[in-house]
């Protein structure tokens, strides 16, 4: 379908130039729980950005966000945008193991700096639980199987896609 909006209107409402990306048709965007193995890490969906608790001072976004969607009080150096496509096809994330490892290492660095971190994607169904489980395994010493179970216990709708699961088990 041809988008007949003016270029100015398209630019104002699409990533990466939009101030806010609407995910209203994506289902439940309210997931927000503490990481089962680190009280300083929160796992959630994009909806929490609109009402982010004051204690959170770092945000790791695993999905596209608008330019002003992350609250302004979160300093630029404490915002991490991760290009992680929620697709099971290996070609969607050609460097998946590296991206996952780099992401959880960045979370660990923020935690070492004393930051309280929100890790989020759109619904906290696939990307967020995969990253949460790998963080527990790599930086908290939890076996990957247990880490996956524990994260999916606190995020009951969690269902990491097959490529993410394969990458997690490969790093176990």
Q: Report the mean per-residue pLDDT as an integer.
A: 91
User: Ends: how far apart?
Assistant: 44 Å
Counted beta strands: 5
Globular, elongated, flat, extended or rod-shaped: what is the shape? Answer: globular
- Strand % is 5-15%
Strand order of the largest sheet: 1-2-5-3-4
Structural category? alpha/beta
The domain count comes to 1
Order of helices and strands: HEEEEHEHHH
- Count of helical segments? 5
Residue stretches low in confidence (pLDDT < 50, at least 5 long) are none
CATH topology (fold) name:
Protein-Tyrosine Phosphatase, Chain A
Fourth CATH level, the homologous superfamily = Protein tyrosine phosphatase superfamily
Characterize the largest beta sheet: strand count, sense, and whether it forms a barrel. Answer: 5 strands, mixed
* Relative helix content: 25-40%
Rg, rounded, reads 16 Å
The appropriate CATH architecture is Alpha-Beta Complex
> What's the CATH class, please?
Alpha Beta
Organism: Cryobacterium cryoconiti
Pfam families: DSPc (PF00782)
Domain Tyrosine specific protein phosphatases: 101-151
Protein name: Tyrosine specific protein phosphatases domain-containing protein
């Amino acid at each position: 379908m041809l988008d007949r909006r003016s270029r100015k209107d398209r630019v104002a409402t699409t990533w990466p130039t939009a101030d806010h990306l609407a995910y209203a048709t994506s289902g439940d965007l309210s997931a927000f729980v503490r990481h089962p193995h680190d009280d300083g890490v929160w796992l959630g969906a994009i909806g929490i950005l609109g009402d982010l608790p004051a204690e959170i001072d770092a945000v790791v976004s695993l999905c596209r966000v608008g330019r002003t969607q992350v609250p302004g009080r979160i300093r630029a150096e404490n915002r991490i945008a991760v290009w992680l496509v929620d697709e099971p096809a290996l070609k969607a994330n050609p460097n998946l193991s590296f991206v996952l490892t780099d992401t959880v290492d960045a979370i660990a660095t923020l935690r070492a700096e004393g930051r309280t971190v929100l890790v989020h994607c759109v619904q906290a169904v696939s990307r967020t639980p995969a990253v949460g489980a790998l963080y527990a395994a790599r930086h908290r010493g939890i076996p990957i199987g247990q880490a996956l179970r524990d994260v999916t216990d606190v995020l009951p709708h969690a269902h990491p896609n097959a490529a993410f699961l394969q990458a997690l088990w490969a790093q176990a």
